[in-house]
Amino acid sequence: MTEPILVIDHLKVDFQTDEGTVHAVDDVSLSLAPGEVLAIVGESGSGKSVTAMSLLGLNRGPNARFTGTAMYKGTELLSASNDDLRKIRGAEIAMIFQDPMTSLNPVQRIGDQIAEQILAHEKLSKAQVRDRVVELMERVGIPRAAERARSYPHEFSGGMRQRVMIALALSCSPNVLIADEPTTALDVTIQAQILERIKDLKEETGTAIILVTHDLGVVADIADRIAVMYGGRIVEQGTVDEIFYDPQHPYTWGLLGSITRVDRPRGERLPSIAGLPPSLLDPPAGCHFRARCPHEFPKCLEVPPLEDRGCGHADRCWLTVEEKRAKREVRPGEIGLANKEEVAPV
Amino acid sequence: MSADVTTPAAAEPTARGRKALLEVEHVTQWFPVKSGIVIDRTVANVHAVDDVSFTLTEGETLGLVGESGCGKTTLSRTVLKLLNPTTGTLRFDGRDITKANRRGMRPVRREMQMVFQDPFASLNPRKRVGQILQTPLKQRGVAKDQLQKDAADLLDRVGLRREHVNRFPHEFSGGQRQRIGIARALAMQPKLIVLDEPVSALDVSIQAQIINLLEELQDGLGLTYLFVAHDLSVVRHVSDRIAVMYLGKIMELSPAEELYDKPIHPYTQALLSAIPVPDPRENRARERIVVSGEPPNPINPPPGCVFNTRCPRATDVCRTVIPPLTEYANGHQAACHHPLNVTAEEIATSIRSDASPKLAGDVVPDLVPAGVTAGS
Amino acid sequence: MGRFIVRRIIGMILVMFAVSILTFLIFQVIPNGDPAVRMAGKNSTPTQIAAIRDTWHFNDPIYEQYVYTMKQVFTGSLISYSDQTNVWQEIKKGLPRTFALGIGAAIIWMVLGVSLGLYSAVRSGGFSDRLLTVLALIGVSMPVFWVGALMSYYLGYKFGWFPNGGYTEIAQGGFGQWIYHLILPWTALAILFVGVYSRILRSNILDTINDDYVRTARAKGISERQVLIRHVLRNSLIPIITLWGLDFGLVIGGGAVLTESVFNLQGVGQYFAEAIGRLDVPPVLEVTILGAFFIVLLNTVVDIVYALLDPRIRLGS
Given CB atoms, is A285 within the 8 Å cutoff of chain B? Predict the structure, then answer.
C-alpha cells in the first residue's frame, strides 16, 4: 500500500453557540492515498462538510475548537498558522464548493478570479497567467475560453460556473482536491457532464479527491473508498464494494435501503429510516444511531469503537459479525431495512 | 365569456372511466421581454410553457419532471391560476376557469392547494403551528369551538403530535416542517394538491418518510396530486403517470413504470441515463449516454424539435418540423420523430394525440433516422 | 447605456417640469399675502399697486404667469420681489460656498464612515465595536442645528478656537483660512452621515464576510488582508458609494440649509431660508428647481456608476 498523503487522526470539532456546545465532529480518523477518491457520505448535520472544511481551516473562528491532528506532507493542518495554511490552500489542497451560483465573486471577471489564485502561489507574468487561465478553462470544457474569461459569473449557467470552480481548483495542480457536494445543485444531465470531467481530470492529473456528498449514486460512480458519517462520527468505512455489497452498520443498511432507483421495479412502499438524526448540541449517550436502530440492545448505551474487521473495512456497531449477517437483509434498492414500527418523528 | 366560473358541465369521463379533475388544453405561458426608450414595447417572449395539454383524473398522481428552466414550475402555477395563461383552456372539475377572476376563483381555490419546496420559507415564523392551521380552517367555515380539535387532528393525520400546536415553525426539523405544510394544504379539504418539489430540500431518509406519508394521505382521502420534481427517481414512487418537460414542451407522457422500462423520447433516455446508479458494479458495467451541451435559451427556442440541438438522433426533420405527440399503446405519448424502444408495428398502430401542439407538423415517426446510428 | 442616458434625460425633464408646476402652484395657494402690496410699501395708493400688478403680470391667467416665470427662470432673468435683485446672480454667488460645504463634508463623512465601519466590522463584538455603535447612535440622533449651534458657541465664541461663522474665499484669505472657516460646518454636517455610513458598512461587511465567494477566496490561499480588501470591502462598498451620491445630491440640493444658516456661510441654502422668511417667491422657486435638478442629476450618475461597479445591473431595460 502506498504511503497516504493525508492522515486525519481523532479529529474533533466543537462550536460554541448561544445554546451550548455543538459537537459537530466527534473522533474522526481517515487517511487518503495519492490518486484515490475517498467519499465522505452522510446526511445534513452528520459532520461531513465540517470535517472537510477543517482541513483547510475554513471554519476557524473564535467559537470553533479543533482537537486531533491532520497531517499533510509533514505539516499538521489543524494547528498550522494561518500563514502556513495559506501556502497550502489552493496550491496543495484545493476545494470545490456546493453552490456554483454563489461561490464566485459576482463583480469580478471569471478570468481574474482564476488568475488571483495562480498569482497567490506563483510568480508569473501577466501574459503567462492569461494563457494559463485560458488553458485551464479549455481543459474543463468551457467553449470560447479566451473570450469567456472576460465574462462575469452571472453570464454563465450553473454547470459552466461549476466548471469554472473546477478550473480554479486545478489551477495550481493540487495534490488533494476536496469536493463538497460538487454536483448537488446541478441538473442530472449537467451533473453527468461534470462527473465525467472530474473522472477524466483525476486520470490525467492523479489528484487525490475527497468527495463530500449525500448522493450514493454519485459515490458509486466515482469513489474508491467510502466513509459513512452519522451524528458527527464515522459509523462505517471501507472500499466501495465493501460498503455497497457487505455493509456492516445498521445505518448504512438503512441508507442503502432508502434510495430510490430508476433501474429497478418499484416496491410497494419506500423503505425509510424512522425518526430524526440526533441533536449535536446534546447527543445521546452511546451509539448515536441507537434511537433509530431496529436492532438496539442494552450494550448500545456505550459508545461502540470503530472496529476494523480486517483490510480497512471498519464499523462502529456492537453487533457481532454473525448477528449482522443474520439481521442484515439489504442489497441496494432491493430490500429495505426491517423497520421499527414507524413512530411519529420527535 | 363571463368572469365567473361557468356552471359545471358533466365532466367527461376518461378512458379509464374515472372523472377528469383537471384538464389543461394547449396552455401557453409567455413572459414578455420589454424594451424601449420612452414607452416599452414587447421585443421578445420567454416561452416558459409552450402549448401543453394533459388531463389529470381524480385520484391519480401525475409526475411532472424536467430540469431547471423547463417550465414545470411555471406550468404548476398556471394550473393553479396563480398566473393567467397567455392562451389555452383550463378546466377544473368540469368548470372552465381560464377567464375566472379572483371572485370567480374563490369556490375553486379551496379545492386546489399547493405544497412548496422550502417548508421553512413558506411558514410564517411568528405564528404557532396551531394558528397556521386554523387560518385555512376558518376560511373553510369550521366552527370556532371545533378549530382547536381540527388543527390537532390535522397534525395527527400528518404524523406529528397533537401537542405540537403550540410550537413555532423553527422548533421543527425540515421533514417535520414539510409535514406542517402538507397539513395546512389538507386543512382546506382540497381535491387537488400541487406538490412543488416537496422533498428536494430534505435528506434521503426523510424524503422517504414524506413520500410514504403523501401516498397514505392519497389512499385515505382520494386526493389528486400534481407532483413537480427535477428528479426522476423521486417521482417514480408516487406517480401513476409521468410527464417529461423540456424547454416549455411535454416531450413524453407515460404510465410511470413504462417510462423507466421503455423510454421513447431520447431526452427521457438521456435523463435516465444521467442518473448515477447507486450500485458500483452495475455502474462500471453500464454504458452511459452523456448528453452534451446545455438547454437553449427559451426566448429563442430552436425550430422543430426543441431537443434537436442536443439529441444524438437528430436529423433534418427534427430541425424543421415540430414533432406531434404520438400516442402508442397504454396511452404512452412521445413527441419524437425518431422514437426509441418501439417497433414498426407499434408506430403503425399509433395515433396522433389531441394533445399535440397546434403548430406540430403532420408527420409520422420513422424508426431509424437516416445517417445516424440508433442508440449511439 | 446610450439608451439609458436618453431615457434618464427625458425623465429628468419630466421631473423638473412636475417640480416647477408644483412649486409654482404651492406659492399661489398658500396664504403669503399679496406681493404687490408688499412691494408697493406702506404708503401706497391703489393706483400704484395696480401698476405693480400690471408690470409683474400678477393679473394674467395663472398658466400665462407660469410660462412667463419659467421663461425668466431659464433665461436667468428672474427678479426677487423683495429687493429687486437678480435671483440667478445671487444664487451664483452662493453656489461655490454651498459646493465647498457639501463636497468637503461628503469627503469627510465617506472617509470616516468607511474607516470606522471597517474597523467596527473587523472588531465586531469587541469593546471598540460597541463603543463605536454607541457613538454612531449619538451622532445620528443629534440634529444639525443643535450640534452646529453648540460647536459655534463653545468652539467658536467661547474658546475662540475657530472663527465664529462666516466664509472666506480662497482668493481672499488663502487656502488655510478657507479650511479654517469650514472645519466646523463640515464637521457639523458630516456627523450624522458618519454615524449612518459606518453602521451600514459594518452590517454590509458582516453579511458579505459569510458569503460563499469569500470562502472561495480564502480557499485560494490569498492573505486575509487581500480577502478583506479585494472581496469583502470592495463588494460591501458598492451600495455605500451609491448612497453617497444620493446624499451628496440631497445636500447640494438644499439639505445644507440649516448648516449654512447656523454658520452664516451665505450659501444657496441660506439664501433660500432667508427668501422663505421674506415670503419672496422667485428665489424659493428657482432654488427649488435647481435643487431638484441636482438631485435628479446625481441619481442618474449614481445609477450609471452602480452599473459600472456591479456588472449584474443592466441599464436600459
Answer: no
